[in-house]
Specification:
306 residues, alpha/beta, Rossmann fold, Arc Repressor Mutant, subunit A, five-stranded parallel sheet, four-stranded antiparallel sheet
Length: 306
């Protein structure tokens, strides 16, 4: 059963040791603003989707009492709704919640944090995921982003920066509304915007949310190649660093799923120095074209002799 950290009775409040050795209790629900929701989160799941000026709904998975107090005041000032969730929330129920963004401190999940994040991203929730946790390595942050996390912020951080990150990732979601729900057919692949999924012969490709966003973006470009930098900005919301290979990693994952589901067709074509194009070609034609491109890049024997 899902419980809220804020909603615990005062006699059962969890204490947390601060850096100065003092212990402070997480405030009761009447001391900090939150959503008026049932403990099982069922009303979150049944709430109507957000649209227009409706206040943002933020789920928070954290047990840092000081952080929660400061964040609650800031969200209240913005008129946003928020709910502090317990780590034991069932994954299916969490993925179905009608929230805009989930802020997660992976420290509360302990050793299972990576498997938990991976399962959540694979569940393709409609909300965004922002990790806000303690010190982490570049490898860990890159792993999280490649897994499907929308943003990663390191504590200690200012609440204004967290709010800005939330507005950024949620803003990308809202700018795409209203969505085009008409199925798009490319070769054997049917892209369904209403289901955030792609199918071959009625069978799902099992795309994660970010993999679906990638195939949707490439398919929307028609026969045009999409620059890697543009793909990154559309999917992550900020400019791509020169050494970042996240786009290539996701293209590789998507290609592999497409090849398994539709092995006689090739869909994603690399335009060297530019980006990627999404178009259905029989495998034989695609391989022949690739050989021609490789030959064009290799110096001829005469040029080598010179």
């Amino acid at each position: 059963m899902e419980t809220s950290t804020l909603a615990r009775p005062a006699s059962r409040q969890r204490a947390k040791r601060t850096t100065r050795g003092r212990r402070t209790a997480v405030p009761a629900v009447d001391q900090a603003p939150s959503l008026e929701l049932g403990g099982d989160g069922s009303d979150l799941a049944s709430a109507a989707p957000l649209a227009g000026p409706t206040p943002l709904r933020v789920g928070v998975l954290d047990d840092d009492s000081g952080f929660l107090l400061v964040l609650a005041k800031r969200l209240e000032g913005l008129g946003w709704k928020h709910r502090v969730l317990a780590p034991a929330v069932p994954m299916k129920r969490l993925a179905a919640m009608r929230i805009d963004v989930l802020v997660v401190d992976t420290a509360v999940l302990g050793a299972r944090s990576w498997s938990w994040l991976e399962r959540l991203c694979q569940a393709s929730p409609e909300f965004r995921i922002v990790v806000c946790t303690g010190s982490s390595t570049v490898t860990e942050r890159v792993r999280g982003l490649q897994m499907g996390v929308d943003d990663w912020l390191t504590k200690p951080c200012h609440t204004e920066e967290l709010v800005a990150r939330i507005e950024s990732v949620v803003g990308r979601l809202r700018r795409r509304e209203p969505r085009e729900f008409e199925p798009v057919m490319v070769g054997e692949v049917e892209i369904r915007g209403d289901r955030y999924q792609a199918y071959v012969g009625g069978r799902s490709l099992g795309l994660t949310r970010r993999e679906f966003e990638l195939i949707e973006l490439l398919a929307a470009a028609g026969d045009e190649a999409v620059e890697r930098e543009l793909i990154y900005e559309q999917l992550w919301g900020y400019p791509m660093l020169r050494s970042d290979r996240s786009v290539d990693v996701f293209v590789h994952k998507l290609r592999r799923k497409l090849a398994l589901a539709s092995p006689t067709w090739s869909y994603i074509h690399t335009h060297w120095g530019l980006g990627y194009q999404f178009a259905a070609q029989p495998v034989e034609e695609a391989e022949a074209m690739l050989l021609d491109l490789d030959s064009a890049r290799e110096p001829s024997p005469a040029r080598l002799a010179a």
